[in-house]
Amino acid sequence: DLVYTLWESLKPQENYTFYCQSCGDIIVEKRKLLRILPLPSENWSALVEEWCCHPNPFARSTLHPQHDDCFLGDTFFLLNSGNESHKSKENTRAICKRCKTTLGETVSSDTIKYYVTEVIIQPSEENFSPTPRSQFVQSMVAQCLVELSSAKSTFRFTIEGDNGKIYILIWLLNSDTLLVESLGSSSSHSGFTLFGDIFLPSSVPVGTWNAVKVLYQPCIKSRNKE
Length: 226
Known about the structure:
Elements: H1 6-9, E1 14-20, E2 26-33, E3 35-38, H2 48-51, E4 69-72, E5 76-80, E6 93-95, E7 102-108, E8 111-115, E9 119-123, H3 133-152, E10 156-160, E11 166-182, H4 186-191, E12 206-218
Parallel strand pairs: 3-4
Antiparallel strand pairs: 1-2, 1-9, 4-5, 5-8, 6-7, 7-8, 10-11, 11-12
Catalytic activity: S-ubiquitinyl-[E2 ubiquitin-conjugating enzyme]-L-cysteine + [acceptor protein]-L-lysine = [E2 ubiquitin-conjugating enzyme]-L-cysteine + N(6)-ubiquitinyl-[acceptor protein]-L-lysine
Subunit structure: Interacts with UBE2C/UbcH10 (E2 ubiquitin-conjugating enzyme). In vitro, interacts with cyclin-B.
GO biological process, one term: proteasome-mediated ubiquitin-dependent protein catabolic process
């Protein structure tokens, strides 16, 4: 598969440990998840008025996971904070205690929203296996693009910051591209690889990867001001 699917990889009644992707520090240790549920689209409330002939019945209701729940969104997941405390004193950011990386944000006093690009989830009985940062982020972004394009039949996306500013425009062309790299000898392999920091055994003569093909346009101050 192109990337692992979080929804398919998590199983109810299993113990999971949550790690900071940047440094490997444990965020949540041995949490047994009884319910793993998908969340509605992030903008679902904007369409409620089209379906209801009366005021929005969900206007004041929010979805908060219990201690043994994990709610999965398109680019994040919600966990009950339990006894874990990763909240920054300055604001509502959830940060790693070791490397101070932003992991997500607090939604309420007992709910934390973790970004899928910042946290690795593994069964508690498995040892932590670090993944190069660039490889992990590429995989998670590719997964989101494929899942969203399949569910919503759209192929154009924007990546926005917390302030609503658009940083990049992405157009998904296809999701069945196969990359093939001739690794050559171990000496040539040590000098250059296609993905830079992805470790590849020198005994493997050819490397192949499934990938998505996209067009992208950065939206930064020096370019595309409009």
